[in-house]
Write a structure and sequence with these properties.
about 425 residues; alpha/beta; Rossmann fold; seven-stranded mixed sheet; about 30% helix; binds zinc ion
């Protein structure tokens, strides 16, 4: 298919596609005006009153099919106070260790290699390579987070990654055998400039891997709650191959992962490198073609499905109110905030949301202002229902919170439909 790549015309009306410049006319879903999903509020009237909201509308480009938030919030407004440290999550640390071993085995990464990670956070992934005597280098935009990595012995450059950063790394002699970019491709406003940094740094036969939530799973699972301002793009393999092709990268393999409700790990190399295409790459291409990802009509069915999820949740809350049942939430995660705000939930609907992260406790959720509490309060409140907001780890939560059943409490999830566990 012929893809136009003209640059933005300042005289045209409407928002241009961030990749190809075509005016965006088609809606995947409009979630209304929402606060930043990770901006937990101090429980003070002035802080609650000063909260900002921004439009959260995902559109799909009819030319290149990139699904994208229409109004981008400047990245520095989001990342300057970025409090998330990867090492806090035990399951992510295990995921990182498995990744490191798999790449070492498959691509023969060793003491003479260099592994570069983009958005390297506190070094949670690179340390698994360093522990196996592989030289590493991180690139991380948040100064405070990069400092934690440096203290742990992971050399880290403070920068947003793009073509210019890639050139600087290469000029300083940092050419990579392996580059990792996990859960960052969807979070960058200028996806082309970001992707263009990789060919600058990769050695001729070097490999870059990218993990991102798969748009196919978002659409199939009606996962509109995974949409938030920090997440600029919603990616298919088809779109990623186009963006990469435009900057001289070629995808040669893809792996399906269960993380974040269904992700892809894409393997890319220089267009001229010798890595052969795998059968599973062909399989994912076929899945997307069968789902109709090359037709704009496919994306327009999503909004009515999300509206049905919202109606189902509202009906559940109305039944609880009528029957005098109490509902508490579990997991003050970004996806829960998008969901509760879209559904118009308030502190009258949910007495609180509990979370194990002490940074979030005794704050208020953005938008809904529902209080966040320590999970221990559930034994005092004894809610009739515990709504699990991070449905992707519902099994883990149910097994660790079994005592909720002691007072007859029941677990529910609301996506893709209200369902008792
Ligand atoms: Zn486009």
């Amino acid at each position: 298919m012929d893809i136009k790549t003209e640059r933005i015309d300042p005289d045209q009306t409407g928002t241009p596609c961030r990749f190809c410049g075509t005016v965006l006319e088609h809606s995947l879903i409009d979630l209304g005006r929402q606060p930043l999903a990770n901006s937990y509020l101090r429980d003070r009237p002035a802080d609650l009153a000063a909260e900002q909201r921004y439009p959260l509308h995902v559109k799909v480009c009819a030319n290149c099919f990139l699904a994208q938030v229409e109004t981008a919030i400047p990245a520095d407004a989001i990342f300057s106070d970025y409090a998330y440290f990867s090492s806090y999550s035990a399951s992510w640390v295990a995921h990182a260790e498995r990744y490191a071993q798999a790449m070492i085995d498959r691509f023969g990464i060793g003491q003479a290699s260099l592994v570069v990670e983009v958005a390297s956070n506190d070094g949670y992934l690179l340390k698994h390579f360093r522990d196996r005597s592989v030289p590493v280098r991180g690139v991380e935009p948040a100064t405070n987070v990069a400092a934690v990595a440096e203290r742990a012995g992971i050399p880290t450059q403070v920068a947003f990654f793009n073509r210019e950063t890639g050139r600087r790394l290469a000029a300083a002699g940092h050419r990579a055998d392996l580059m990792a970019a996990n859960n960052v491709l969807a979070h960058v406003p200028d996806i082309r400039d970001f992707a263009a940094g990789f060919p600058e740094v990769l050695k001729p036969e070097g490999v870059a891997t990218f993990e991102f939530p798969h748009l196919l799973r978002l659409i199939d699972g009606i996962q509109f709650d995974t949409i938030y301002h920090e997440h600029y793009s919603y990616l298919s393999l088809m779109v990623v191959e186009r963006v990469f092709g435009d900057v001289g990268l070629r995808v040669f393999d893809v792996e399906e992962l269960p993380t974040h409700g269904g992700s892809l790990r894409v393997f890319a190399c220089h267009a001229q490198a010798s890595h052969a295409e795998t059968a599973r790459l062909a399989a994912v291409r076929t899945m997307e073609a069968d789902a109709g990802f090359h037709r704009i009509e496919t994306y327009l069915d999503f909004t009515p499905k999300a509206e049905r999820v919202r109606a189902g949740f509202r009906a559940f809350l109305a039944r609880c109110r009528a029957d005098g049942k109490t509902v508490a939430g579990y997991g003050a995660a970004a996806k829960g905030n998008t969901f509760l705000n879209y559904c118009g939930a308030t502190a009258c609907d949910l007495v609180c949301v509990v979370d194990r992260n002490p940074e979030k406790q005794d704050r208020r959720l953005p938008g809904t202002h529902i209080p966040v509490r320590d999970p221990a309060v559930l034994t005092e409140i004894k809610p009739d229902y515990v709504l699990i907001l991070p449905w992707n780890i519902a099994d883990e939560i149910v097994s660790s919170m079994g005592h909720v059943r002691d007072w007859g409490g029941r677990f529910v999830v609301a996506v893709p439909e209200i369902r008792e566990l």
